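Notes to self after the Tuesday call (sharing in case useful).
The group wants a holo model before anyone commits to mutagenesis around the pocket. I volunteered. Ligand is flavin mononucleotide. Logging inputs and output together so the record is complete.
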Amino acid sequence: MNQKISIIYFSPTGNTRKTLQVMGESISDMIETIDLTCSDYETRNFTETDFVIFGSPVYGGRIPLVARERFFNMKGKDTPCFVVVSYGNRDYDDALLELSDMVKSLGFVVKGAAAVVGRHTYGDIQITRPDENDFMQDKAFAVKAFQKANDRSDFQIPGNIPYKDGGAGGKFRPLTSSVCVKCGLCVRECPVHAIKEDCMTITETCISCFRCIRNCPVHAKNMDTEEYESFAKMFTQKLKDRKENQYFM
Ligand SMILES: Cc1cc2nc3c(=O)[nH]c(=O)nc-3n(C[C@H](O)[C@H](O)[C@H](O)COP(=O)(O)O)c2cc1C
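Result:
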């Protein structure tokens, strides 16, 4: 297929990115990537001949506030798109509806939607997901929804208005242990610039996305506190049953 696809995402720990890549590559070999994770992007204007896939994680049942702000620079003109949210096996609540409503207000036409499960940021929940089975489902969805993109689309996306409160981020603040080599990777790669030059977390700015913990090459960034450990244990137990992805077209 030679239609160029633009994949646009906010994805601190990579689940959303992986899903969008699989979806994009299953319908085109010309993928443009607009990664909004670490910074804003200049305004982009799309036309009705473009095709876009938007993706975001779910934070507290909503689209993260910072992602909302970054998506607003993307402008469509009757541009067909898919919307995708990745959630950590709890619930996606109003996030998919919110993302769909948001991109519609920016000039996009939603031709397909998906709520997919990825490893939760906290605890050990669905740690191997998205897995091969998820990717197979993502591909099947993308191919079918893309083929149907010219048909009338009047599917319903679950969610409530007003949307629930959420999206601000979590309460955990990663620590920095003495093995830190001050390589600065976490400083450069923090989505909200919440890490100082000395690699310490800025408490007020951090959104608890744990990107720094996942990426730290020497495992200096950590959440090794009793309070977190006991929360993580309880949360892991509570969300142990696998949820399946949901697709709408
Ligand atoms: C602050 C915060 C809030 C979250 N809230 C939810 C939630 O409400 N429901 C859920 O199932 N997962 C929730 N998660 C988990 C993420 O949605 C999930 O891990 C997602 O796949 C991360 O996407 P990413 O890897 O693209 O960053 C939350 C994670 C964080 C950091």
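Two things stood out.
The CA atoms of residues 104 and 110 lie 7 Å apart.
The mean pLDDT is 97.
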